[in-house]
Amino acid sequence: MPEPVLAVGGLVPFTTIDFPGRLAAVVFCQGCPWRCTYCHNPHLLPPGGGERPWAEVLAWLESRRGLLDGVVFSGGEPLLQRGLPAALAEVRALGFATALHTAGIYPQRLAAVLPLLDWVGFDVKAPFAEYARIVGSDGGGAARAALETLLASGVDHEIRLTVAPELDAAAVERLRGELAELGIIRLSLQTYRPPVAAMAS
Ligand code: SF4
Description:
Elements: E1 8-15, E2 24-29, H1 54-63, E3 70-74, H2 84-93, E4 97-102, H3 107-113, E5 119-124, H4 132-135, H5 140-153, E6 156-162, H6 169-181, E7 188-190, H7 196-200
Parallel strand pairs: 2-3, 3-4, 4-5, 5-6, 6-7
Antiparallel strand pairs: 1-2
Bound molecules: iron/sulfur cluster (SF4).
Iron/sulfur cluster (SF4) is lined by residues 32, 34-36, 39, 41, 45, 75-77, 103, 135.
């Protein structure tokens, strides 16, 4: 397998809350094509080389064997990066369980990595026809296709929604209905936190 090229925009060495049941590290992947109104990681949005080489992260993970049992790929949107499948395979070869945080922007790429994942945290944004209100572009079709792919895979997951000010109670109920049509009963609601720039203004 070729050396993976993964643009790493940050690393959290230890978390108990980002991968259920695991003591994990979080690798933040650089780049995301969406511009959610509440994004808390604007520094991760532009694509680029990232802050540190993947090989360095992998060597550090090797030193964490026996101390951590999972690695989360978050972002940004990790599926943006072509090197993600190879990076996941390398992490699993070290004995770690793997998790992905995604908004489902690239359904086909999600399908390709699901066999390499133990858990997925999937962020839905709005009723599928209303994604542009939150992400700045059409994206609901891709997100729905990605959700269907995730459900068909049987990979353990959590579906989450940040209740942004743009979403009133009726919009949340519309989304619940659309998810129910897919067989999704449980939706985790996350509290909206204003982005840092909005808080400063
Ligand atoms: S999908 Fe995630 S990383 Fe991308 S803009 Fe939205 S909140 Fe930020």
